[in-house]
Amino acid sequence: MQDARIVDIGSGLGRLATGLLAELPDVHYLGIDANEQFVHWCREHIEKLHPNFRFVHLDVANDLYNPGGTIAGGELRLPVDDASIDAANLWGVFTNMVPEHVRAYVAEIARILRPQGRCFLTAFAEDDVPEVTFNPSDYVPYRCTLPLTVVRYSKQWLFSTFQQHGLQLEEFRYHGTMFPKQSEIYLIKADTRLGQ
Ligand SMILES: C[S@@+](CC[C@H](N)C(=O)[O-])C[C@H]1O[C@@H](n2cnc3c(N)ncnc32)[C@H](O)[C@@H]1O
Predict the structure, then answer these.
(1) pLDDT of residue 50
(2) Which residue has the least CA distance to atom 19 on ligand 1?
(3) For the chain, which residues make up each domain, given as ranges?
(4) Max CA pair span of the chain
(5) Which atom of ligand 1 is nearest to the CA of 14?
(6) Which fold does the domain 89-194 belong to in CATH?
(7) pTM here?
């Protein structure tokens, strides 16, 4: 655990990195974000002091966080070796992402996780809804005035996307309290060597 390799996609302003520094300061952490300013801030305030915590900017287009981005979903490639990562984290990322990019990220997560590596992510996911709905009305207790404020998926679409890439669902639960509609999703990469 102390020397685990962790990738944090949508690392924002280093919330996970800050917690890891307090609890597991020796892990190898890579934060990836589409917002260049966030990455710059994390490099200045975290990476410079803790070189095992690195941050990279990936110029993926996102109408909310990086509208001028140049990388489209199909071209997405994370700067990480195959099967080299113990855990991937995406808190509040698929919640604001178009399906083409979710699909591309799921494929990349499956590629970079080692067999039986874990992925934790949050999403707006429900039964009996269309595959994807942008800013659904009467869903969250706040106004969705900006593009991609809320992207809600059907559980069926999301879970089958995970399954197609060999990511098995371990647990699904609603986050409750602060973000009642946001769900926590725990995945494990199938170990094909074990036939699992
Ligand atoms: C709601 S914030 C969450 C930040 C962080 N995970 C946290 O929990 O504090 C979403 C983050 O995802 C990033 N993001 C959005 N689309 C992205 C993409 N396609 N690739 C990488 N990061 C992305 C945004 O720039 C933003 O920092």
Answers:
(1) 97
(2) 60
(3) 89-194
(4) 48
(5) 9
(6) Rossmann fold (3.40.50)
(7) 0.95
